[in-house]
Every structure is written in C-alpha cells, then in structure tokens.
Design a protein that fits this description.
2 copies of one chain form a homodimer.
Chain A lengths: L13 H7 L3 H12 L6 H5 L8 H13 L3 E6 L2 E6 L1 H7 L3 H21 L5
Antiparallel strand pairs in A: 1-2
Chain A binds a DNA duplex through helix 4.
DNA sequence: TTCTTTGTTCAAAATTTCCGAACTTTTGAA
DNA sequence: TTCAAAAGTTCGGAAATTTTGAACAAAGAA
C-alpha cells in the first residue's frame, strides 16, 4: 500500500479546504475529529454520520480531507488513526477552521431546536 | 423572467456556503464584491477572473452565490447589481466570512510572492 | 419598430462523485 | 505456517453535477 500523501498546508489552495468541508459527511467527520482527544480509525468515525455510506466512499472522503491538509492519517496496525492538523492550518489561515467548526456547531444547534419545536412555537 | 430567489440565511446550510466558495471563480467574485463600495453587474465582475468563462457559466455561478445567501442581486435596467450579504451571514455565523475573505487575501499574497521570486531565493 | 446589451434557460458534453467487487495489509487463531 | 477476519484502498461503471453554446427574454436606445 502506497504511503499516504500529506501536503504542506502552504501547498493547499484555500478552495481545496473549502471544498473538502463543503460536503455534509466530510465536515461532520472533520468536526468530530477536531473535538476528540484521541485519534480514531475511519470505521469508528463513520458512526457519527447520519446516513450510512459505502466503505469505498468513506475512504474517498478521508482522502479528500487528507489531501486538503485537514487531517493526518497514520497506520496503526490494521487501522488508520486520524488527527486534525488544526495548528498548521491556523498558522496559515488564522481563524478559518475555528469559524467553520463554530458555524457547524451553530447549525447543529439550530437543527436540534427545530426538531424539538416542529412548527412555530 | 422569474424573480430571483434570495433565501433567508437561517435556511441556508453551512455546507451550501462552503460549497459556493469552494470554486476558484466564485470565491474570487465574492471577495471582489465584498471589497467594493458600489454594487457591480455580472459582466463587469467577470473581469476579475483569471480565466475567461462562458456567459452561461457566469450566470450559474451568480445563482449559486445567491442561493447560498452570500449575495443579493437586484435588476437595474438591463443589468444586475450584486451586493454581499455579509451582515446577515455574520449574524448567523460569526467570523466565517471574515476568515474566508482574509484567507483568500493571504493566498493571493503568497501567490504574488511566489511569482516574483520564481525558485527559492 | 429594430438593434444592442445583459443575463437566463435549455440540452448535450465533460467532469466529478458514489458504490460494489476485488484486492492489499496486518493481526490473531488454529 | 496457514487460514481467516478486519480495516482500508483501488478500480470500473453508474449516477449526479458542472460547463458550455445556442436560443430566448427583458430593457433601453436609435
């Protein structure tokens, strides 16, 4: 298996970062990774998604996050441990990831309130 | 011609905003609109793009920005005047647009320096 | 009216994404 | 060792999205 490619943040276009996080599944996975103490493998992380997706699609999503410089994936035995590269991205694009993670949280909160109060109350 | 649709920011998923700005042409157009005092029509704004694109593609790009709640387009005679909806987006997702606009500026700056100093100097 | 300018819509081509099947790598059990 | 299971990757075709030229619509000027 070819070694995984991890670009320097300086090599990653801003558009690639935004594209990586413009997918519902990917931004959810990334925010979850950011919020964890310990790195987790891909299959475990899939559990945070609302809709189940194919294993090959999940692999592709992790590749997109990795090549956007957002996560680092290390092989640990048979699994991959994924960690966020927040500090590196922050060094180049200050405030970017924090704003997106916060926005995601705000959206989740709004959805939760919408669900608990079905129609105008 | 059907009236243009402008969603409430609360109705726009975060992913739609990120997707709208994940395209090189769209983020460039948007950042340009944000930086202008006066609203501009679509054709004029096309001049800020590096690569020329088809008129129909440009129209589609503005539609994507509009439906992501990022710009407001008003018909003024035969042309469309576009303005950014920064304040509204800021109210829901604090810091998001500022961070992206700033990141875009940082990237432009880095590209400029790279061009003036071709290979390691 | 007729022409020009600006932007939209439509349908087909080009590109990207998703998924199932097959494959690789590593671990652990027999 | 050998075999099987687990976790991901790769590949090829199907499905979805994007791009584009051509035709169309609307407003204003001649």
């Amino acid at each position: 298996m070819r070694p995984l490619f991890h670009p320097e943040i300086a090599e990653v276009p801003l558009e690639a970062i935004l594209h990586a996080l413009s997918d519902p599944a990917r931004v959810t996975l990334f925010v979850d990774i950011v919020g964890r103490e310990c790195s987790q493998n891909c299959s475990t992380l899939q559990a945070v998604l609302e809709k189940p997706i194919a294993k090959s699609t999940l692999s592709q999503h992790f590749k997109v996050l990795r090549e956007a410089g957002l996560i680092r994936s290390e092989r640990r035995g048979v699994e991959m441990l994924n960690t966020a590269r927040c500090a590196e991205v922050e060094a180049r694009y200050p405030g970017l990831l924090a704003a997106i993670v916060k926005a995601h949280s705000i959206q989740r909160q709004a959805e939760a309130e919408k669900t608990s109060r079905p129609a105008g109350s």
